[in-house]
Write a structure and sequence with these properties.
By secondary structure, the protein is of the alpha/beta class. The chain has a single domain, classed as 3-Layer(aba) Sandwich (Rossmann fold), CATH 3.40.50.300. It has nine helices and five strands; from the N terminus they run βαβααααββαααβα. A five-stranded parallel sheet has the order 2-3-1-4-5, with helices on both faces. It is globular, with a radius of gyration of 18 Å. The protein binds adenosine-5'-triphosphate.
Length: 200
């Protein structure tokens, strides 16, 4: 089974590219979705977070109030480490389970849509690394325009991630998403063709 790591800076268009790979029939493992699922009501991580950070992190309907958790967890490195010690093992376990399941089902290619693929060094475990690349200034513009982020917030989030240069250096294939959305589909088809001819 070919493991394809898909990454890019915040607002680069990873999800859009992952959807295009899915439209070609590739199985996609969405890291952000897993991170959300492991803290859904009824999941052990949510109860542990409430015990660790206080039950005020739960909304009236029992779902996680992310703002409240962030306000309590990101105050100092110790609290952040506690948060990570509760969530990260679950995320890793579920991710491994999805890869194993795909392998058991004889799935030929899996795309792991993972924002922090390079930041965390996970790209070393992949057969192919695909990076969606967009100039930082254009990403700020899209995050403000389409996502409604404050410009300062967009810049701070970009600065908190690994640099574009480091991410690009880890890439086997770079998808340039500086152009219009319509240009992406052709590039994803070409990337898939290249992957199948070079790695399979
Ligand atoms: P995040 O890092 O926040 O998860 P992402 O990398 O998954 O983001 P997307 O959600 O795919 O990025 O795209 C970010 C936003 O930019 C979306 O609103 C998307 O529609 C828009 N977008 C993506 N590509 C382009 C493009 N080429 N031109 C204009 N807008 C685009």
């Amino acid at each position: 089974m070919l493991r394809i790591g898909l990454t890019g800076g915040i607002g680069s268009g990873k999800t859009t590219v992952a959807d295009l790979f899915a439209s070609h029939g590739l199985e996609v493992i969405d890291a952000d979705a897993i991170a959300r699922e492991i803290v859904e009501p009824g999941q052990p991580a949510l109860a542990e977070l409430a015990d660790a950070f206080g039950h005020d992190i739960l909304s009236a309907d029992g779902t996680l109030n992310r703002g409240e958790l962030a306000a309590r967890a990101f105050v100092d490195p110790g609290h952040t480490a506690l948060l990570n010690s509760i969530t990260h093992p679950r995320i890793e376990e579920e991710t491994a389970r999805r890869f194993d399941s795909a392998e058991d089902r004889g799935v030929p290619e899996v795309v792991w849509d993972m924002p922090l693929l390079v930041d965390k060094g996970y790209h070393h475990n992949m057969d192919v690394v695909v990076v969606v690349d967009v100039d930082a200034e254009e990403r700020v513009r899209r995050l403000v325009h389409y996502r409604g982020l404050a410009e300062e917030d967009a810049r701070a989030r970009i600065a908190a991630q690994v640099s574009d240069q480091v991410r690009r250096a880890a890439a086997d294939i770079i998808i340039d998403n500086n152009g219009p959305l319509e240009a992406l589909a052709t590039q994803v088809s070409a990337a898939l063709e290249e992957i199948r001819s070079r790695w399979e």
